[in-house]
Amino acid sequence: MGGPTASLHPLSRADGSASYRCPATGSNVLGSVNAPIELPGRRDALKPEDATIEVFVKPGTAPGGVGERHIEGILRDALSRIILGREKGYPRRGVVITLAIVGGDSIGRGASYLPILPALLHTSILALLSASVPLSMSISATILAVDSSGKIIREPSSADAAATASLHVLAFTSKGHLLLNESEGAFNFDTWERVYERALTICHGTSALGSDGDVAMTETVDSQPLEGLVRDTVEDRIHVEYAWKIDAA
Amino acid sequence: MASSAAVSTAPPALSLPPSQFARLQPHAYLLAHLSPPASSQQPSIRANGRAPSQFRVTSTNTGSLTHTNGSSVVRLGDTTAVCGIKAEILHTEDIASWSVSHSSSSSTPNKRRKLTNPTEKPGEDRQDGSDEVEDDDSYIEDFSLLVPNLSLSTGCAPGFIPGAPPSALAQSLSHRVLSLLHSSRLVRSEDLEIWYQRPNLGPEELERHNEDEQMDVDVEQDGSGSVGETREIKAFWVLYIDIMIISLAGNPFDAAWTAVLAALRDTKLPRAWWHADNETVICSDLVSEARRLSLRGLPVASSFRVFEADAASGWRAVIVPDAEEERKIAESDRKGIQRRWVLADPDGYEEGLAQERVCLVIDKDQRQNGKVVIVKMEKNGGFAVDRKELKELVAVSAQRWEEINKILGQC
Amino acid sequence: MTDRRRINGPPGGTRPPVFASSIKPTTVAAERPQRQRQPNELRKIFLKTGLIPSASGSSYLEFEPSASLSAARASPQSVIPPSSSLKLACTVHGPKPLARSATFSPNLVLTTHVKYAPFAARQRKGHIRDASERDLGVHLETALRGAIVAERWPKSGLDITITVLEAEDDRWWADAPDSHDAAWGMMNVLAGCITAASAAIADARIDCLDLVAGGVAAVVADETAERGVSAPRLMLDTDPADHRSTLSACVVAYMPARDEITELWLKGDISKASVGIDDKNLTHEALIDGAVDAARGAHSVLAEAVRESAERFAGLSSGKST
């Protein structure tokens, strides 16, 4: 099982874009960000001192539905907290994030959006970075499933996710805050706390919690923490874009 | 900043009535209520007079709408939701994906149930028996047997244009209701199935079922294994669950979900059977033969918002502290000034001021001494609520469960 | 047809349940409800204002359930309700500035919107307004426009929204549709809408010439034990489910203080000899007069509700000043 892969700026016309693929959950998302842009005809709705953030999610195969509106709301609430919409040039303007679900299973009527949520979050944060939108922090997210015996499964495939007792998506900021949690299915709080520890390790590696030796070791052995993925992707891009400068030096 | 200027000019000297102040400086107004000056000895209270973890007065009324199978009116303070459930019939012949495989395997879940507790009466069976057997509820999701829709275009609040297509909020709420109905597995598939028993030509069989050789799901066949093979699902009940938010003053989800819950508890489905001659499903109109749905548990939703003293804290990057530092600050809060308040059941005014939201749906397992089971836990849009806070909120929601359980028990 | 903004049911469609008694009407339910009121006796109306605080004005209206319905409620035997009673909620938002794109208007622009809840009638209603709901909206607007002093709010809009939670039947459920058939229940709904909207407008402190009230009268024929269908009679505030057939019905929006009708809607034909009416007094004039009488009755309830609203408002404002 390979880790997730991402690339920056696959689209040339958008202000910023990113593509993200997670083989474990089978999700593949392409995102673009346009910011800051004028939002015509919505002068009344614009906040005077803040940017207006709009998120659009386009499913790959099925026609869109109410589920997309719900997930758009979740993404908007999470991202509006880390986008610095009051920076110069942003108030009364729009940050428009469009996310297209390219591959993976289509999500049925009333079905859970959780399996695709981490990929959507990662894509948007990378696309925002690519568009140089000012952010207060970066985020990383993961999905964990708990089966009926209480075993935690990391990044389950959609078939696994359907069979488990509960599903949890947690997103942490780069400073370790829990920004978003979406859990569904029957579970108790102790289970969730174990999920939380594990998710924190997946997103931040061992540094964030030293005591939990066992779990942390395995996480770091088979893959890097997810936070590093965002950093590496951006670093790679910088290496490519500043190759002339680095070479010259 | 403007807000601090307003606070300093607002004192009684300037005769600005509180209602005007609340409109002009909503954030400062709520903050002033929540953090009264230490000298005043006043408790921290919300602008609406509630304590931070206090819910609004909730009342429900069920069964008042004539043309529904089940209905409810829920008032959560000034938010009112009306839910009506109408049941219609979906014939299996109208299901494109209803294949031979389905009809041949359809008798399995029923047989399985019989195997586990062959001696119990069907009623008891519903009460406790079938939870052990993992029922196959995939029918509900696969064939769209639950159709909840929430409408805000009822003039419930200014800003929702009547007649316009559902707003993003209404769509999102509809989706949350449906997704919670699915994930909590509240409605049982078996309650919605309409069975057909092929007439067995044995003479005693004819005698026993004098209803024109008709069968339905309610009539338990006492262990006669040979007839089990000839049973098949002919149709399903489809529940159209429509929620009209008549008045919106914050927290629509809790009101809508409570209304759905109350309406489902009130829902009665008539006895239905397959009429072989007419090739259709016929229902009995006798109330005595209609039966209630047997719901799985009672998942109760509680929503919260987090109000922050510093409205622009998400803005200035440099001041966002580390999660670790944050915890230390939180510790110092215990002694000194509080910066964040978790407000239960926010009203419309508070929702406009607080970005971070938490929604918990919990149930208590009656068989395990009321052990708290979390069915859904959502938290989004801020940094204030972390592990410790969520644990406290689960406790608050558990209390709320008792309240709602009592309220729903009364109607 | 799938609506992407709503949650859709099964793609193959569903059918409303068919009851055994509608095939073989032998069971308890198959007894036609009887009108227990005198011909000029109105149903009680429950009308309350100010239940929806986020609106400028609001009202909730409910008709007293008929004798058959309350009997069925008390000791339910059949799952098929014998009749239903009107329940509706009305909100008024405004006066508010017109949309930027709207053209100049020297008067208050009235927008009325009547929508049935999907569960309001025996047959499930769609989410999008159908022709009859639009029709009701237009009738309601006509009724109210004559009462509101529109010149007082130039460049302003007033939105009136009515959600019908439970509608009246057009006929008894077990009757087959016949030649006299029309949407009779709709007329009762309109009368209710007019009364409720009037209360909500008063609750929103919009200046009106008078409180406009709605009333319905109809010429109906009943079954009698002796000789089949009886001679047509004029009755006020009819419930279509109570009668064998409705020949004609009339709904008016009436302002008692000015003795003015702002809206009149008459359906059916009683002038023809073919109907077999020998009563010379049974004219359209009599029908309209009957509807006006019904409206007078509704007006007394309306006046009481508005008085309560005014008292509440006075209490609020005096509370504020102290």
Entry summary:
With 249 residues, chain A is α+β, with helices and mostly antiparallel strands. Chain A contains 7 helices and 9 strands.
The major β-sheet of chain B equals: 6 strands, mixed
* Terminal residue distance of chain A: 39 Å
Helix/strand order of chain B, N-terminal first: HHHEEEHHHHEHHEHHEHEEEEEHEHEEH
Quick one: how many beta strands of chain B? Answer: 14
What integer is the average pLDDT of chain A? 84
Helix content of chain B: 25-40%
Computed Rg of chain B: 26 Å
Number of strands of chain A: 9
Tell me the series of helices and strands of chain A, N- to C-terminal.
Answer: EEEEHEHEEHEEHHHH
Q: Level of helix content of chain A?
A: 25-40%
User: What does the average pLDDT of chain B come to?
Assistant: 79
Q: Low-confidence parts of chain B, pLDDT < 50 over ≥5 residues?
A: 1-11, 103-134, 205-228
Strand content of chain B: 15-25%
Terminal Cα span of chain B: 52 Å
Spatial extent as radius of gyration of chain A: 18 Å
Protein described:
The complex is a heterotrimer of chains A (249), B (411) and C (322). With 249 residues, chain A is an alpha+beta fold. Chain A has seven helices and nine strands. Residues 207-222 of chain A have low confidence and may be disordered. With 411 residues, chain B is an alpha+beta fold. Chain B has helices spanning 2-9, 18-24, 26-34, 100-105, 107-116, 122-132, 138-142, 168-184, 189-192, 203-208, 225-228, 252-266, 323-335, 348-351, 387-410; strands at residues 58-62, 70-76, 79-91, 146-151, 193-197, 231-247, 268-269, 272-275, 280-283, 291-292, 300-308, 340-344, 356-365, 371-380. In chain B, the strands form four sheets. In chain B, strands 1, 2, 3, 4, 5 and 6 form a six-stranded mixed beta sheet that branches. Chain B has a four-stranded antiparallel beta sheet with strand order 12-11-13-14. In chain B, a hairpin with a 4-residue loop joins strand 8 (272-275) and strand 9. The longest helix of chain B has 24 residues, at 387-410. Chain B is elongated, with a radius of gyration of 26 Å. Chain B starts with a helix and ends with a helix. Chain C has a single domain (37-76, 84-321), classed as GHMP Kinase, N-terminal domain (Ribosomal Protein S5, domain 2), CATH 3.30.230.70. Helix content of chain C is 26%, strand content 25%. Chain C has helices at residues 20-23, 67-74, 131-145, 184-203, 284-321, and strands spanning 18-19, 45-49, 57-63, 87-97, 109-116, 156-166, 213-221, 223-224, 228-229, 233-236, 245-255, 260-268. A five-stranded mixed beta sheet of chain C has the order 2-3-4-6-5. The termini of chain C are far apart. Chains in contact: A-B, A-C, B-C. The interface between B and C is large, with 65 and 63 residues. Chain B: Residues 36-70, 98-136 are annotated as: Disordered. Chain B: It holds the Pfam family RNase_PH. Chain B: Residues 98-107 have a biased composition (Low complexity).
